[in-house]
UniProtKB/TrEMBL annotation:
InterPro entries: Fumarase/histidase_N (IPR024083), Fumarate_lyase_CS (IPR020557), Fumarate_lyase_fam (IPR000362), Fumarate_lyase_N (IPR022761), L-Aspartase-like (IPR008948), PurB_bact (IPR047136), PurB_C (IPR013539). Residues 18-317 form the Fumarate lyase N-terminal domain. Keywords: Lyase, Purine biosynthesis. One of its GO terms (molecular function) is lyase activity. Pathway: Purine metabolism; IMP biosynthesis via de novo pathway; 5-amino-1-(5-phospho-D-ribosyl)imidazole-4-carboxamide from 5-amino-1-(5-phospho-D-ribosyl)imidazole-4-carboxylate: step 2/2; Purine metabolism; AMP biosynthesis via de novo pathway; AMP from IMP: step 2/2. The gene is purB. This is Adenylosuccinate lyase. Pfam families: ASL_C, Lyase_1. It comes from Branchiibius cervicis. Its EC number is 4.3.2.2. The keyword Amino-acid biosynthesis does not apply. Catalyzes two reactions in de novo purine nucleotide biosynthesis. Catalyzes the breakdown of 5-aminoimidazole- (N-succinylocarboxamide) ribotide (SAICAR or 2-[5-amino-1-(5-phospho-beta-D-ribosyl)imidazole-4-carboxamido]succinate) to 5-aminoimidazole-4-carboxamide ribotide (AICAR or 5-amino-1-(5-phospho-beta-D-ribosyl)imidazole-4-carboxamide) and fumarate, and of adenylosuccinate (ADS or N(6)-(1,2-dicarboxyethyl)-AMP) to adenosine monophosphate (AMP) and fumarate.
Amino acid sequence: MHSLADITPPIALGALDGRYRAAVAPLVDHLSEAALNRQRVHVEIEWLIHLTSEHVVPGVRELTGAEQDHLRAIVDHFGADDIAELAEIERETVHDVKAVEYYLKRRLPAIVGDADAAGLSELIHFCCTSEDINNLSYALMVQGATQQVWLPKATALVDQVTTMARDLAETPLLAHTHGQPATPTTMGKELAVLAHRLGRQLRRVKDAEYLGKLNGATGTYGAHVEAVPGADWVGISKSFVQGLGLTWNPLTTQIESHDWQAELYSDIARFNRILHNLCTDMWTYISMGYFAQVRGQGTVGSSTMPHKVNPIRFENAEANLEVSNALLDVLSATLVQSRLQRDLTDSSMQRNVGTAYGHSVLAMDNVSRGLAGLDAVPDAMLADLEANWEVLAEPIQSAMRALGAQGVPGMEQPYERLKELTRGRRINGEDLREFVKGLGLPGEVEERFLTMTPATYVGLAPNLVAYLDIH
């Protein structure tokens, strides 16, 4: 049998780089191995520029504006040839960050001239441990993936749910608590609950901090102080990290502690779990006939049953959210731990961030497409309401309690009397109206209940959707 592993171009092992590539492709610019190396190149170049601009090392000239532009252009034009070259260097060094250092040193003479290259090249990776470069690179990668890919996708999805909630704000719906018919609501209000929950998590993600450090092998600036004793290394580090658009962490071991990552991944995982809740609710509403799926031309719902249109978008989303959360949970749990001043578990763990984000983005794509393919069926919702007049026992007995508290005679044991009428049996509108007439209610109260139906017993549900505009 021919080995599929030998086929060129290589066949993807995972679904994200195979079947679902199109949906997650924007993350490649941020969370791939190539993106990691590009950010390493970026950080190393900015560190060199920072050192010379701040005149940190006595006697070293400042890079000209043109030289700085040429260096930054390396990042802007980083592509396939650069990826291949770095891979070739790494095969020799067996060290990924050192490969980046050598890669940049090859390019420096053409930018600053042979005469200055020898001295300036020694400031590439100056006083840095690999984790100084890596922690800043990962912070920039995750920041970019979150702000430029994940958040826009999540925001658009929440807006989509919000629009549905507003459109269906007044569409009455029989609620189900514990799977049993319960106090009516509206479909819009129920969707608004989910949109509100998702929106809260979005705001937490938007407010996330991305921390970074540059302080040497054990966070002491030991090599820095010995190399250039007179420099303000704490200030230099702080201004450099903040200049990258990150929050400076003043106290670390060899590694930045990754607590910010754990916090961010927990928030994204919570968003995922709420979205999973939306998927299971929508799946259930579809199964109850409250939404009809609009099948596109040429699609197949079932391979054997022509009538079926399966809610596959929501089912696929559930599976991808579960995979994403499994990874986000283990990232959150493990990245905050490190033996003494450093171990390498975080390095291997962080290589899975892209996969965690990928399954979340893929799930959101599925949910969005699933929602776009739905039409509400108010008649089906109304039919279930009409079949469950017993839900009006709640407002009647509540009104009787209020009247009894006010001293109106004949309002005794309202709960028990409604329980006897409705528990374990179905009643229709006529049954309920006859019962109401025999309760001895004041005229205006009796009239209110004689005209009430399950579809009109929705309380303030339509108005509550407006709270989506209040953060």
